[in-house]
Write a structure and sequence with these properties.
Elements lengths: L14 H10 L5 H5 L5 E4 L14 E8 L4 E6 L2 E10 L2 E8 L2 H4 L7 E9 L6 E3 L2 E3 L6 E4 L8 H12 L10 H6 L5 H9 L4 H29 L13 H7 L6 H14 L6 E6 L5 H14 L3 E5 L3 H14 L7 E4 L5 H13 L4 E4 L13 E7 L6 H8 L6 E6 L5 H7 L4 E5 L10 E5 L4 H13 L3 E5 L14 H9 L8 E4 L5 H12 L5 E4 L12 E6 L7 H8 L10 E5 L5 H12 L3 H19 L17 H17 L9 H16 L1
Parallel strand pairs: 5-7, 10-15, 10-16, 11-13, 11-14, 12-13, 14-15, 17-22, 18-20, 18-21, 19-20, 21-22
Antiparallel strand pairs: 1-9, 2-4, 2-6, 3-4, 4-5, 6-7, 6-8
Helix pairs in contact: 6-7, 7-21, 7-22, 9-10, 18-20, 19-20
Length: 674
């Protein structure tokens, strides 16, 4: 974009001091100011008769002043100015606070436009501190996110200055604009800030939403293409049918489909970069086992990295059972092993004696080497950084990479979060997987809930009590995990073995507590969301989540998935005293559904993508105008357009695509900086 890279401090009316305030709003250049879109609008063209106005509604009224302005001093520093206004349908009183300057300009018998919140609560309809304009000062006015030092009106004025004589290169190629009936960038920017009409505003917004999603998806497709390196680990044959025949159960059609997609990728001579996304208990580990079996039968080694030792041990035991009747050799490599044991395993890996190694970060040490590493799998991929996965992959010659996630993510959001990966979804449960009974109750049921927990514990089962906070917080009337643990240990559950687990504990402490719980040495675990993902404790059959309103829907679903892992009928109880509006709606969804993807879709609709995941740590760009849940149809169309443009110009080297290429470079530069 031409002359848009100019520092904002050089724009007329800004200067160094104001520039610092604008910087806090994310505005550092003239271009950033023009892309700082209004959060809402005031429509001064839409006139509402006084009689038709509703209580609390923001409206624009065209009325004639029928009385002189009266002045009433309420107290020191508080003066009210009042006058009456009428139109053909009725009358209202207008009150101004401490605004002598405006009050002195009001003339009896003259008509004005009044924009503000209408009140019909009093005997006489009224409007307090409205904005007042002359009749020729109509139009749709932008309202911006503002600060105490920078008002919306001030930003509006600066945008007008910036638009004066500016030239903007259009990042959308003419072919795309014409094909999808999109307005020019100049028209879009002018009308998103100062719409000529509601229709012009709609047209501008449609164009800018499309542009944002199109640039993002074009960039992701290019990024995915860069990852399609030549692989030295090609599967010559598929052994999926053979693997299925050795299993003591039938794989679901979703598991088989995901396995086939991965094996097909690994047979093409290009590096597989795939995400397997499956709900809690959907059987992702079996798919991983199928791929590692295929790799081993083709003479390749596999490494599966888990975030904790307990989870690594769990995977190791599962794979040992699944592959017990095969010649495939499996190793477990974790940090707690003795130095001598680690040395033996690493020597055997280097010589090719082991086909599969399951481990933690211990796999990343410099002295861990492989003879022929062909497949790298990371479990609960969000627990690992990109650099950690890359370090493990670097131990082979462009090995195939698979990441697994049990966090259901709406398909629209997954397209963006994992746009550089191919995605396989396991959306089917294995036969016999039980449903978990779910209930929502107020805190007044606490004693009854505890009695229900003790009934399970007396039967030999184990349970969880999940709290939203680690420590007590004076600002929030919520029991923390520590407070709850101390009260219950010395109170209702004093005759039981209780454990405490939270994120502020040291890793070794957390491992020790989880191991004790898994081994059955703890009856009831009071914890935070640190138990959200991973460990299977088949004996755990009861979970209580306190202050359930403080968790996201997907998080509640993940937590609930920690019970019901064995053969025992399981229950999850959500405790919340906030039972109105959106909270009631959310709790009804989690109570009535066990489909993680459906819950994730609802969660996204209710909370938006920023709150859903926390955009920065997940690499999600901050959308300036697009809304992933509301604009899913545009996301799909923009994806089609992105593929079309890259089909004709794979590297965006032609003259008509250079502006688009520059925008993509800038976007990914910003994402890398974040």
């Amino acid at each position: 974009m031409s002359n848009l890279d100019t520092s904002i401090r050089f724009l007329k009316g800004v200067g160094e001091k104001r520039a610092l305030t604008l910087n806090k709003l994310g505005i550092d250049t003239v271009g950033a100011l023009l892309r700082f879109y209004p959060r809402s609008y005031e429509d001064w063209d839409k006139i509402t008769p006084i009689f038709d106005c509703n209580q609390g509604e923001k409206v624009c009224i065209k009325g004639k002043v029928t009385t002189v302005v009266t002045e009433e001093k309420k107290r020191q520093n508080m003066t009210l100015y009042k006058f009456n206004v009428a139109d053909v349908s009725g009358q209202m009183t207008v009150t101004l606070f401490n605004n002598r300057f405006l009050a002195e300009k009001i003339r009896v018998g003259r008509e004005y436009l009044f924009y503000g919140k209408f009140s019909s609560n009093t005997l006489f309809p009224s409007m307090t501190s409205p904005e007042i304009r002359s009749l020729d000062d109509k139009g749709i006015r932008p309202i911006y996110h503002a600060t105490a030092k920078m008002s919306s009106a001030s930003i509006e004025k600066l945008v007008k200055t910036a638009l004066n004589g500016i030239y903007i290169d259009d990042p959308l190629p003419d072919k795309i604009r014409q094909q999808y009936n999109l307005c020019s960038i100049k028209y879009a920017i002018e009308n998103i800030h100062f719409p000529a009409s509601q229709e012009a505003l709609k047209r501008a917004k449609n164009r800018l939403v499309f542009e944002e999603l199109f640039i993002l998806q074009t960039g992701l497709i290019l990024l995915k293409g860069k990852k399609k390196l030549q692989s030295y680990s090609v599967l010559k044959n598929s052994y999926l049918d053979e693997f299925c025949s050795i299993l003591p159960f039938e794989m679901t059609s979703a598991q088989i489909k995901a396995s086939q997609q991965c094996i097909e990728d690994m047979s093409k001579g290009k590096v597989m970069n795939r995400l397997i996304q499956g709900d809690v208990g959907s059987g992702k580990t079996v798919v991983a086992a199928a791929l590692m079996y295929n790799a081993a039968k083709n003479g390749l080694q596999s490494a599966l990295m888990a975030p904790t030792e307990i989870l690594a041990e769990q995977h190791f035991k599962t794979l040992c059972v699944l592959l017990k009747n095969t010649p495939i050799k499996i190793a477990l490599l974790t940090g707690s092993l003795l130095k001598k044991q680690k040395g033996k395993i690493k020597t055997a890996l280097n010589s090719g004696e082991y086909d599969i190694v399951i481990g933690t970060h211990a796999l990343l040490t410099d002295d861990t080497a492989f003879k022929n590493l062909g497949l790298v799998i990371t479990d609960e991929q969000h627990r690992f950084g990109v650099s950690q996965r890359a370090r493990l992959a670097a131990k082979g010659k462009n090995p195939h990479t698979l990441v697994m996630s049990a966090t259901p993510i709406p398909r629209t959001l997954a397209l963006i979060l994992y746009g550089d990966l191919d995605i396989s979804i396991i959306d089917e449960y294995p036969k016999g997987r039980q449903t978990i009974d779910s209930f929502c109750v107020p805190s007044s049921y606490e004693e009854r809930v505890y009695g229900y927990i003790s009934k399970h514990l007396d039967e030999g089962r184990q349970g969880y009590i999940v709290c939203p906070l680690v420590e007590e917080n004076e600002e929030l009337p919520i029991k923390s995990a520590e407070q709850c643990f101390n009260e219950l240990k010395n109170g209702f559950f004093k005759n039981y073995r209780l454990g405490l687990l939270h994120g502020k504990m040291k890793p070794k402490e957390k491992e020790a507590v989880m191991r004790s719980f898994k081994d059955g040495d703890i009856d009831l675990l009071v914890c935070t969301t640190v138990i959200e993902v991973g460990i299977d404790v088949e004996n755990a059959a009861i979970m209580v989540i306190r202050n359930a309103e403080r968790f996201g829907l997907s998080q509640l679903h993940q937590l609930r998935g920690r019970v019901g892992r064995g053969n025992y009928k399981s229950t999850c109880i959500f405790i919340s005293d906030i039972r109105s509006g959106i909270t009631k709606q959310r709790l009804n969804i989690i109570k009535s559904s066990s489909d993680g993807f459906k819950i994730a879709d609802e969660d996204l609709k209710l909370r938006g993508p920023g709150d859903f995941l926390g955009s920065r740590q997940h690499g999600l760009p901050e959308f300036k105008i697009a809304d992933i849940s509301a604009d899913s149809a545009t996301l799909r169309i923009a994806g089609i357009a992105a593929n079309e443009i890259l089909k004709d110009d794979p590297k965006l080297k032609t003259a008509e695509n250079l502006n688009l290429r520059n925008e993509i470079i800038q976007l990914y530069k910003k994402l890398n900086e974040n």
